[in-house]
Write a structure and sequence with these properties.
By secondary structure, this protein is an alpha+beta fold. It contains 10 helices and 17 strands. The strands form 4 sheets. The chain has an 8-stranded mixed beta sheet, sandwiched between helices. It has a 4-stranded antiparallel beta sheet with strand order 12-13-11-14, covered by helices on one side. Helix 5 crosses helix 6. The longest helix has 21 residues. Bound molecules: zinc ion. Zinc ion binds next to helix 3.
Length: about 425
C-alpha cells in the first residue's frame, strides 16, 4: 500500500462539492460560461489553503491553480493533475442531494425523490462489480455531478495526503481545476506559462482500471447551400430552393454506416448536428470524427462530393463546404512521450490494479492540453452513468484513484 492508515477525505469532499450547482451553458459567450461555477472554485481555493497549499488562487477566467511543493531537491518533471468543476447542461444540477448507499448489496437502486428513476444492474452492469462498495447517487431529480467532481475530490484527497506526508518523495505538483469542459471550452483560457507543468493527467475517466490515452480527432463541417429566390407565383424555371437542397443532402447521408447510430470501437463517423435555412440560404452543420486524423480529410472530400452532386441537381444553386478543426487524437502526442502512459500503468500496478488502455469516442480537456504542450492522458475516477439522473460513483473507486495519483507522483521522483 502506498498510503497505509490514511483516512481518505475524498467521499466527504465529494458529497460537499456536488451540492454546489456548477452547470455550464453552451449558449453563453462569457468566460467562464456561468458565474456560478466560481462558487465551487472559490470553495476549492479555501479548501486548498486550509490544507496548507499557500499559492492556491482563482483567476479571472475561472481557473484554479495551486502547487504542492516538491519534497526532494533533485530536478523532477512538474506534474499537473487536472479536473473540471462544471457539470453537463443535459440534466439539472440544481439542489443535488447526494445519497451514500453503504455496503452496496447488488440490488437495483430506486431513487427516493422520483421512484421511476432506477439505477438497475441491467442498464449498469458495472454496478455488479462494485458489490460491497459504498455507492453515491443523486436523489432522482438531478444528475449527481460525479463527472467531474469525483476527479476534483480525488485531486483534493491526493493533495491532503501529500501535504500530511512530506516523507513521500515527489517533485512540484500543479493542480488545475477548469470550468466549461462539458461545452468544449475547458482549456480555452488556461495560461500554460503560468501552469508551468511538463506532463499532465486528467481525472475524468469511468471504470476502475481504465487508462485513456487515445481520443477522437475531430473537425466540424459547415455545408452551406445558396439558392435562387423568386416569387413563388412566378418561379417557374427560376427558383432553386436551398431548403430542398439541404434536405436532399441530409437524406444522402448513410444511416447504416458512417454515422454514430451504426459505428463503435475504432470506427469513425460524420453526424449532422443542426440544419437551418430559408429559400435563399440553408446550412447543415456536422461533426466529423475518427481516431486516424488522416481520414478526416477523406471524410471532408466525401462531403464535398455529395454537395457537388446536389449542386448538379439544382442548376444555379451553389454549395460550399467549410471545415474547422476541433481537436486531435492525444495519442499522436503521447506516442512521443511513451513514459507518460508507462508510468501511469506502473502506478495502477502498484495500487494492485491491472491497467487497461482504452480509447475515448470523444475528446477530453487532455486532448487539447496534449497539443498545447502538456501530454495528458485520462485516469479513471469511478464516475458512471454520467450526464443523467442515474449517475453514480463508488467511494472505493475514488479512493483507489487517489492512491494511483500518489504513486504517480512518487514514480516521477524515483525515475528522475
Ligand atoms: Zn467530464
Amino acid at each position: 500500500m502506498a498510503i497505509p492508515h490514511y483516512k481518505h477525505t475524498v467521499a466527504t469532499r465529494f458529497m460537499e462539492y456536488v451540492q454546489v450547482d456548477t452547470q455550464s451553458d453552451p449558449n453563453s459567450e462569457t468566460q467562464p460560461s456561468t458565474e456560478k461555477q466560481k462558487d465551487l472554485s472559490r470553495k476549492l481555493v479555501l479548501d486548498l489553503l486550509a490544507i496548507g497549499i499557500k499559492d492556491a488562487h482563482l483567476d479571472e477566467h475561472g481557473y484554479v491553480y495551486a502547487t504542492i511543493p516538491a519534497t526532494v531537491d533533485k530536478k523532477v518533471p512538474v506534474l499537473c493533475f487536472c479536473s473540471h468543476v462544471d457539470t453537463a447542461p443535459d440534466c439539472s444540477g440544481t439542489n443535488v442531494k447526494p445519497i451514500l448507499h453503504e455496503n452496496y448489496d447488488g440490488q437495483d437502486i430506486v431513487l427516493p425523490d422520483d421512484n421511476t428513476v432506477i439505477i438497475s444492474t441491467k442498464d449498469h452492469p458495472y454496478l455488479k462489480e462494485r458489490i460491497g462498495d459504498d455507492i453515491i447517487t443523486a436523489s432522482g431529480l438531478t444528475l449527481l455531478g460525479a463527472d467531474d467532481k469525483a476527479g476534483v475530490a480525488i485531486i483534493m484527497d491526493m493533495a491532503t495526503y501529500l501535504i500530511q506526508h512530506p516523507e513521500v518523495p515527489h517533485g512540484d505538483i500543479r493542480i488545475l481545476f477548469t470550468p466549461d469542459e462539458e461545452i468544449g471550452r475547458g482549456v480555452a483560457a488556461v495560461d500554460m506559462q503560468h501552469l508551468g507543468a511538463d506532463f499532465g493527467y486528467t481525472l475524468d475517466g469511468g471504470e476502475r482500471g481504465h487508462l485513456e490515452g487515445e481520443t477522437f480527432s475531430a473537425d466540424a463541417a459547415i455545408v452551406t447551400f445558396h439558392g435562387v429566390s423568386a416569387h413563388p407565383g412566378y418561379a417557374k424555371g427560376k427558383m432553386q430552393s436551398a431548403i430542398k437542397a439541404a434536405a436532399d443532402f441530409v437524406a444522402m447521408l448513410p444511416k447504416d454506416n458512417w454515422c454514430p447510430e451504426s459505428t463503435e470501437g475504432m470506427e469513425g463517423f460524420v453526424h449532422p448536428t443542426s440544419i437551418s435555412g430559408l429559400l435563399e440560404k440553408a446550412t447543415v452543420q456536422l461533426i466529423v470524427r475518427d481516431f486516424d486524423t488522416k481520414k478526416l480529410s477523406l471524410y471532408a472530400q466525401r462531403l464535398t462530393e455529395m454537395a457537388n452532386t446536389i449542386m448538379a441537381q439544382y442548376p444555379g444553386l451553389t454549395a460550399d463546404v467549410q471545415i474547422k478543426e476541433q481537436y486531435r487524437n492525444m495519442k499522436e502526442v503521447l506516442d512521443l512521450h511513451p513514459h507518460v502512459m508507462a508510468y501511469a500503468e506502473e502506478a495502477y500496478l502498484r495500487a494492485g490494479l491491472q491497467p487497461y488502455r482504452m480509447s475515448i469516442r470523444g475528446g477530453t480537456d487532455g486532448s487539447r492540453l496534449s497539443f498545447m504542450g502538456l501530454p495528458c492522458p485520462n485516469i479513471f475516477t469511478g464516475e458512471m452513468g454520467i450526464h443523467s439522473k442515474q449517475e453514480y460513483v463508488s467511494v472505493q473507486d475514488m479512493e483507489k484513484a487517489t492512491e494511483i495519483c500518489v504513486h504517480l507522483a512518487q514514480i516521477y521522483a524515483e525515475k528522475a
